[in-house]
Amino acid sequence: MTSLNATPALDCRYRPKWHYAAGRNWLNDPNGLVYSNGVYHLFYQHNPHGDVWGNMSWGHATSADLLTWDEQPVAIPCDEQEAIFSGSAVVDTCNTSGFGAGGVPPLVALYTSAYSPASPLAGRQAQSLAYSTDDGATWTKYDGNPVLDRASANFRDPKVFWYDGDAGSYWVMAAVEAEDREVVLYKSADLKSWEYLSSFGPANATGGVWECPDLFELPVDGNAGDTRWVLVVNLNPGGIAGGSAGQYFVGTFDGVTFRSESTVTEGMQTDDSRMPDYGWLDWGRDYYAAVSFSNAPDGRRLMIGWMNNWQYAASTPSQGWRSAMSLVREVRLETRAGRPVLVQAAVDPFEASGTELFAAGPEQLADGVRWLPAGSTGDVLRIDAEFQPGASGRVGLVLRAGEVDGVQERTVLAYDSVSGCSASGELSLDRTASGDVGFHADFPSVERVAVPLDGGRLRLRIFLDRCSVEVFAQGGLVTLTDQIFPAESSTAVGLLAEGDGATLVSLSVTG
C-alpha cells in the first residue's frame, strides 16, 4: 500500500444532494454495478485512508431507487500484494462458478489486480475474482487468483456479461490493453477459466490510454427485432473537451467478434480533425469511466460515470472527501439522421418529490438577461426549457449566478445560431467564471457541441447540484457534464438573449 494521507476536516460546502459521494476520502471509477434482490450495488475505486488517489480498494454503496445511496463498509480492500483496480460484478444465477450454496446464487466480482513490489507478479495487471454468498455484504478472494494473466503491465478493467446467442451460451469479458488502445474479448463457462475470442481497436479517439470498456445489446427505436451492440471505451487523456472522456461504437457482436458500424478513423489518430465526428458519451469535461449495471430489471440499460477529470481531479476544492458520481442514466438507441445513436435520460430525483417553483412561456425574449424571481432560485434544481432561437444570435440560461467580494460568478449555458440559421448551431457551457476556478489551470473551460434544432426548437433539461451541472439536450441526444464550485450564495437563474427574435416556448424550474 502507499503511505497514508491524513484526512483533513470534512468540508461539505460542495457536497451534492443527489450525486453519490463517499462520506469521506477519495472516490473514482464506478465498479461492479449490479442489481440483486431489489438492491442496486455501486462499487467504486476508493482510498479508505485519504482524499487523494491511493490504496485502491472497492468502496460500496447500495440503493433501492438509484437516487438515495447508503454507504457500506469497504467491500474488497487492497493489501500488501495488490491494489484492487476497476472491474465488474454479476449475479451467477446458474452457479456456474460453484461458489453458491444452498441454492442461492453468488455474486461474483471480476477485478484487476495491480500487483505491488511485494508480490511475485510485481508490475503486472491481471484479472482476479472475488465472490459473495451474502448478497454483497462480504467478499472472499478466490484462492486461484489471478484467473486471467497476459503478463502485461496495462491489462485491466474487466466488464463481464452472459452471452446467449448463435455461438453458444457463456460468460464474455471485455477488458483493455490500455496502452495498445485495444479492447480484448474472452469467454468462460465458469468465470474462472478464460479463452481468448478477439480484439477491437485502435479506432476513433486514441489520444490517451483506453480504459473501462463495456459491451451490451440494445434495441433500435424500441424494436426488439432490430438490435445493435454498443461498445463503450473510456480514454484518458484525449477527450473531446480535454482530458478524460468516454466514447462509444455501434455495431454487431456474434459472440466472438465485435464489428463497428460507426468507426470514423481506424488505427491511431494522426490529428484531432475528426474528433467531433466520433461518438461521445458526454461533451463535457466531467463524465468518465462510465459503465452499466448488470442484471438491471425490465431490460433497462443504466449507466453511471465518475463526475471528474484526471487533469484536475486531485485538486478540486473539497477537503476530507473528493469526487462524486453522475446521476444514473438510462441509455437507448434511437435513429437520428439515418443512423442509430445513443440517447440518455437521467434517473430524475425531482420526479416523485419535486415542487415546481416557477413557470413561464410562451413569450418573446428581449435582449439581455432577465433574472427569475428569488423563489425560483437555488443550488439544487431541475430546469426544463424550450427555446425557438429564431434570428437571435444567442439564447440560453445563466446559472448559479451571484456576486462575491465584488466578483461576478455565473455559469452560462447558451445556444449560438450559425449565421442566423435556425436549422443548426452550437451549444456551449461556460464555467470560466463559475466560482472557484483557480485551483488548477485546466479547470476554467468552455465546452462546445453542435446541436441540430428540431423544428426550429431547442429542448433542454438541466440538473443543478451543489458542485455540478448536467445538461441533456434534444431529448438526451447530447449531454454536457461539468463540475462547478460557486459560493453558496450564488443561486440566481436568468434567461439570456442576445439580439431580438428568440422565443421562450416554455420554462419550468423545479426544486
Number of helices: 0
Low-confidence stretches: 1-6
- What percent of residues are in strands? over 45%
What overall geometry do the principal axes of the alpha carbons give? globular
Largest sheet: 7 strands, antiparallel
Structural class estimated from helices and strands? mainly beta
Roughly how much helix do the residues carry, as a percent range?
under 10%
Number of strands: 34
From the N-terminal CA to the C-terminal CA, the straight-line distance is 44 Å
Rg, Cα atoms, Å: 23 Å
Q: Overall pLDDT, averaged?
A: 95
Report on this model:
With 511 residues, the chain is an all-beta fold. The chain has no helices and 34 strands. The strands form 7 sheets. Strands 22, 23, 25, 30, 31, 32 and 34 form a 7-stranded antiparallel sheet that branches. A hairpin with a 2-residue loop joins strand 20 and strand 21. The protein is globular.
Please render the helix and strand layout as text.
Blueprint: E1 25-36, E2 39-47, E3 57-63, E4 70-76, E5 82-91, E6 107-115, E7 125-132, E8 140-141, E9 155-165, E10 168-177, E11 182-188, E12 195-200, E13 209-220, E14 223-236, E15 245-253, E16 258-260, E17 288-292, E18 302-306, E19 321-322, E20 329-336, E21 339-346, E22 356-360, E23 363-364, E24 368-371, E25 381-388, E26 394-404, E27 407-418, E28 421-433, E29 446-452, E30 458-465, E31 468-473, E32 478-483, E33 492-498, E34 503-510
Parallel strand pairs: 1-19
Antiparallel strand pairs: 1-2, 2-3, 3-4, 5-6, 6-7, 7-8, 9-10, 10-11, 11-12, 13-14, 14-15, 15-16, 17-18, 18-20, 20-21, 22-34, 23-34, 24-33, 25-30, 25-34, 26-27, 26-33, 27-28, 28-29, 30-31, 31-32
